[in-house]
Amino acid sequence: MGEMIDVGDVGLWVERRGTGPDVLLIAGLGDTAEAWQSQLDGLADRYRLTAFDNRGAGRTPLPEGPLSVPLMAADAAALLDALEVPAAHVAGFSGGSFIAQELALSRPELVRSLVLMSTCARPDAYFRTMTGFWHWMAERAPSERAMLEAFYLWVYTPRAHADGTVDRIIEEALAFAHPQSVDAFQRQLASFAGHDTLDRLAGITAPTLVLAGELDLATPPRLGRVVAEGIPGAGFEVLPGEAHQPFQEVPDVFNARVDAFWREVGARG
């Protein structure tokens, strides 16, 4: 069971699982703590995992006023402070990886290590055009189902579309009791489209692993490589045959890789 934790002007819905070294999981555009279910289930025997709904997603409200990646990073920092976690392994995917970058820059003492999945440092022309399309697609799609069917073309592999995985995910999304509003989707999207850490990446001091899906259309490997090259000592790996969300499509592969990385970081002390 989750709980609402006050981090200032908003309460974040938080799910915690397991025992061991602390791990903070940061979701991306529109996603909630449930996006990390395979990690909450698969890694709880080794880690104390914390996942949460960013402001404007799921059960976490979206107050009036500007929304930005640094603000969501401040939420993540305030959450760790509220939970009295002195430092955590931080993993973020897509927009969550943007938040993780800002967290590592603004509160480096809280970040024991970084895993950045499906990431970038500065959106390029393709990314800006893509997110602009998503913005009006959310308003003009004939139904929520149609919106998800279109949106997930950028998110999941052709394999997942063919084998029924995407159909199952759509049904789960439609049945979810706390759907994201169009306004919240667009405001989150605008904040992620404005993300820019390119000239500040050298300031990230945490051990970092950047992962990219070979078939990722939204944040292709070329964008992740730029992030890895900008962070001192960062590792970079491409997952063959995978797209934007391997942690959902091939969770055993993803879990094994991040577990090995976190163990390496732990061994270094």
From TrEMBL:
Taxonomically, which superkingdom? Bacteria
**InterPro entries this protein is in?**
AB_hydrolase, AB_hydrolase_1, AB_hydrolase_fold
MF terms in GO: catalytic activity
- Among the Pfam families in the record, one is Abhydrolase_1
Q: What span is annotated as the signal peptide, if there is one? A: none
Tell me the Gene3D superfamilies matching this sequence: alpha/beta hydrolase
- The residues covered by the AB hydrolase-1 domain are 23-245
Name of the molecule in the record:
Pimeloyl-ACP methyl ester carboxylesterase
Organism from which the protein derives? Streptomyces griseomycini
From the broadest rank down, the organism's phylogenetic lineage runs: Bacteria, Bacillati, Actinomycetota, Actinomycetes, Kitasatosporales
